[in-house]
Design brief:
heterodimer; A: mainly alpha; B: alpha/beta; Rossmann fold; 7 helices; 33% helix
């Protein structure tokens, strides 16, 4: 079966990327423009999943959201619903692991916009928010798009933390990377091959797109 | 540091490091001084004693930056229209007001061009048009002709004088160029190491 993991991956990655794009952009903006104490500590915290082994991140997610987790237990007691082993858990794992890429890219892109343009916008009467949407965002567009593509790819390939928090349930949480793992260990070579090819194709396309977006970044 | 700028063009003159650009940025609200008072007519923009500090947006200041800071993703017409507030324009819509500016500065031919495709002189005129279109109470110019060659510079100096004479809004013009100061200035404020050294008319300040 190719269709089921493909459909699941598409669902998980679409929802995850939507969350990552908005959250990552907001955080990138905060870190780029903020001048508050503990700023770099906050930045480090959000970058952590990038360097932590994915299974360690998965472990912490379980500690937090598992059936007996810090948040998971009260949630279960309140609603009778546990997030572990659901597709929503796969989304959370993907978001946590891929968000750092978006935050880093967005921050760098926003910081690369010459502040002179933003100041000019203020002298022309535009508010901080209007300036962000009219000036900063359009000028940082390419770097931000590259960040979205990169985090999309990372979310698509998420394995370790997903396996731990969402499990490997076919039709429910078995995304493509998990399906490949399953296919290999059960000797279904054909299936593994096709899935691997699809993921490779998407990843190559994403890398190419990213390089086109960030190459020749116009220096204003 | 204290000076008044009435009508005409007030030149802030001095060498690099004398505080000319800093003064401009302070008037605009980009920098907040430790003490002092900045007011335009009846409106107080800054008063350290009373804790008044109007944001950049609330101050009616038109600013022409040294490198013009024209938005690279907008055409000349869009740049000029950017600062025009819809509610301030009773009759003709923003586009027509921007068109009028383009005509006044004789840059209609670059209306749909992007800053990268304009000459230095065209950029300078667009920057000044943009600042004026936002209906300022004062226009601040930070060495706007430093990147322009001699021939175009002479022409643009005359244009700046003509524009100021027509709009009757006080200009505060920063330069370290004596020639510009003499030709443009109604009043010269000589700055040195962050303080005012002399204030007077060009004839008094620059005695041969």
């Amino acid at each position: 079966m190719i269709w089921e993991p493909l459909k699941l991956s598409l669902l998980v990655v679409t929802v995850a990327t939507a969350i990552i794009a908005t959250l990552g952009l907001a955080l990138g903006l905060l870190l780029a423009k903020g001048r508050f104490r503990g700023q770099e500590l906050l930045a480090s915290f959000f970058t952590l999943p990038l360097v932590l082994p994915p299974t360690v991140s998965g472990y912490y997610l379980i500690v937090l959201l598992g059936r007996h987790g810090l948040i998971g237990e009260p949630l279960y007691n309140l609603t009778g619903w546990s997030i572990a082993f659901t597709w929503q858990a796969a989304v959370i794992a993907a978001v946590v692991l891929a968000l750092p890429l978006m935050v880093l890219s967005a921050r760098a892109a926003i910081e690369s916009v010459n502040p002179q343009f933003e100041i000019a916008s203020y002298t022309l009467g535009k508010s901080w928010l209007a300036t962000f949407f009219l000036i900063t965002l359009p000028l940082a567009r390419r770097g931000i798009l590259a960040g979205i593509v990169l985090s999309f790819t990372r979310a698509l390939g998420e394995f370790g933390a997903t396996f731990m928090l969402a499990g490997n349930i076919p039709g429910r949480t078995q995304t493509m990377p998990l399906a490949i793992y399953e296919a290999v260990i059960s000797g279904e070579d054909k299936r593994a091959q096709v899935l691997a090819l699809i993921l490779t194709g998407i990843s190559v396309g994403a890398v190419y797109l990213t390089s086109k977006l960030t190459k020749g970044a116009i220096r204003y | 540091m204290a000076f008044d700028a009435a009508g005409g063009i007030t030149i802030l003159f001095g060498q690099s490091g004398s505080g000319k650009t800093t003064t401009l940025r302070t008037i605009a609200g980009i920098i907040t001084p430790d003490s002092g008072r900045i007011s335009i007519g009846e409106e107080v923009y800054f008063d350290a004693a009373r804790g008044t500090n109007l944001s950049i947006q609330k101050r009616r200041v038109g600013y022409v930056f040294q490198d013009y800071a024209l938005f690279p993703h907008m055409t000349a017409a869009q740049n000029i229209a950017y600062g025009i507030k819809d509610k301030d324009v009773p009759g003709p819509p923003r586009r027509e007001r921007a068109q009028a500016m383009l005509r006044l500065f004789k840059i209609e031919h670059v209306a749909n061009r992007y800053p990268q495709n304009m000459s230095g002189g065209e950029q300078q005129r667009t920057a000044l048009a943009r600042a004026l279109a936002s209906d300022p109470a004062v226009v601040l110019l930070d060495e706007p002709l430093s990147a322009v060659d001699g021939e175009t510079r002479a022409r643009l100096i005359d244009e700046v004088v003509a524009v100021q004479d027509r709009v009757k809004i006080p200009f505060i013009y920063v330069t370290h160029n004596v020639d510009e100061a003499i030709r443009l200035g109604t009043q010269i404020v000589v700055l040195h190491e962050g303080g005012v050294k002399q204030i007077g008319r060009p004839g008094e300040v620059f005695r041969p």
